[in-house]
Amino acid sequence: MKASAKAGLEQFLTYRLHVLNKLAERGISERYQDKLDVTLPEARVIASVGSFGPFSIMDLARHANLDKSQASRAAEALIRQGLVQRQASVEDGRVVLVSLTAEGRALYKKVMPIARKWNVDLFDCLDDKEKVMLGEALDKVIESVLARQG
Fold first, then answer.
1. Which residues of 83-92 are buried (b: 16+ CB within 10 A; e: fewer)?
2. Which DSSP category does 100 fall into?
3. For residue range 86-116, what is the model confidence (pLDDT) as tens digits?
4. Which of 69, 70, 97, 65 is nearest to 84 (CA)?
5. Which residue has the higher pLDDT, 88 or 64?
6. d(Cα 49, Cα 42) in Å, to the nearest integer?
7. What is the rounded CA–CA span in Å between residue 82 and residue 22?
8. Which helix (H) or strand (E) holds 101?
9. Under 8 Å CB-to-CB from 76, ≥6 apart: which residues?
């Protein structure tokens, strides 16, 4: 029997991705906390709304890769800090959207360079060819999973 067939949990893709995700989140979370005094969910809300918003809480959760309750709590904290505001949707008055205030836009301009730098740092151990290969491999796996789901 091949050694790979005997491989333990540490060789499963989902396990390895989970470990990498936790390590990466811990690193970026520390940077946001140290440099901007915001939590990772708050920074994700700022980054998502600043990049793509305004959003409903459901759409925000999807774009920020947070569950609905995390997105809601982070948005509420940012509203209290004057960084995010609520507004009724022009298309549907029943829908409440969150958008950045002027202070929120200023914070967005600080959040994004930290995120970009962390992303570069994460891939710094790879050469250019490996970075391209990893990106293509991840895209292929994501496409395959999406195709199976729908």
1. bbbeeeeeee
2. E
3. 988 788 777 889 999 999 999 999 999 999 9
4. 97
5. 64
6. 11
7. 30
8. none
9. none
Report long-range pairs for 88-91 (Cβ below 8 Å, ≥24 apart).
89/56
What type of residue sits at position 64? A
SS3 content of the chain, % helix, strand, coil (to 5): 70, 5, 20
Domains, the chain, with CATH or none: 4-125 (1.10.10.10)
Query: Quick one: which of 113, 119, 137 has its CA closest to 35?
Result: 113
For the chain, what is the radius of gyration of the CA atoms?
Answer: 19
Instruction: Give first-to-last CA distance, the chain, whole Å.
Output: 35
Q: Contact, 99 vs 78, CB < 8 A? A: no
Would you state the pLDDT for residue 1?
44
Give the span between the Cα atoms of 95 and 103, in whole angstroms: 24
